Sequence to fold (356 residues):
Amino acid sequence: MRRLLVLAFAVVAMSFAASAHAAPAPAASAPGDLFTVTGIRVDATAESAQTARDAAMAQGRPDAWSQIYRRLTPSAMWGRQPRLTDAQLFRLIRSFEVSGERRSTTRYLADVTFHFNPVAVRQFLRQSGVSFTEARSRPALVIPVVGDLRFDPMSPWSAAWSDQSRRQGLVPMILPEDDAENAELLSRTDLAQADWPSLAPLAQRYNAGVVVVAIASADGRSVRSIEISAAARTPSSFAFAQPNFPALADAVTDKVAETWKSRSSVDYATRARLVADVQFNSLEEWSRIRTQLGAVRAVSDFEVVGLARNEAEIDLAYFGRVEQLRDAMAQQNLNLVNGVAGWSLQLGGATADSAR
Fold:
């Protein structure tokens, strides 16, 4: 790429601020919005109905903030959670919705959904010096089984995984369909011994980056889970004194999310640069690469320093470690590779044959 032939009409160097080209955040009401917290139960009593309602909302805002903070940060950061005043929380929350409202002359109860302002939350966390990530991983495909039985989509254990809230975090947890295409694999009673090559076709069908075989005890008190991916096989186990399938599912979900957050959380006080050769097959592909680069939060800005027919050279500034940058780019279907000739970048699945 150092031999780039710059087009005769001379390409003017272009700088793109990542924030300016960032993909728009999904609507706050959309399922899986990272900055929405649902099901916050509030209950307060006061001298009047309005005062009780105000007290209940003031009670719910810190709980919602704690969920957002823990959703975006690894557990090592939880002890550094900033304590916010009600006025600060107001500035972070964009709107809220109430359901199941019940009130009397002195008491107020409800379930509240809080929609946080993504820009305000990002800015606050960066100013607080907290490492965090909002890069979503590809889904984790969960196969819930009980004991040595096969996958049963109607079991209480599978029902615990059907809650839509499990798709709301950084690692969306999804279930396979119990259909003919999956029947052979899901009918196995030895899924705990399954390896990645045997699970890869199922993972590919759902665009999953990891398969989690979650084996619960029949009494609903314990679970043994195995995270299986192309790179690793990670077992873990959890137990409770009382039967609680939802709590077991929460524990497995939190473990999978923690692995992702520990790997991808970015320290925004750390900055670095790299120069990469970009390969593409068409101007449309080149446009897509630029757009998707702008959606990578770890990228602060990039400059095009050379452009030819099927390749370009960019100078890119980013936050955090280069491994985190590579992971964040992969979520935008961008492959960043460090080869003999230096860094290269292209769309996932692209070959850029003509560039060679």
The chain has a mean pLDDT of 86. The chain has three domains: 14-22+268-355, 36-116, 140-264. The chain has ten helices and 14 strands. Residues 140-264 form a domain with the Rossmann fold fold (CATH 3.40.50).
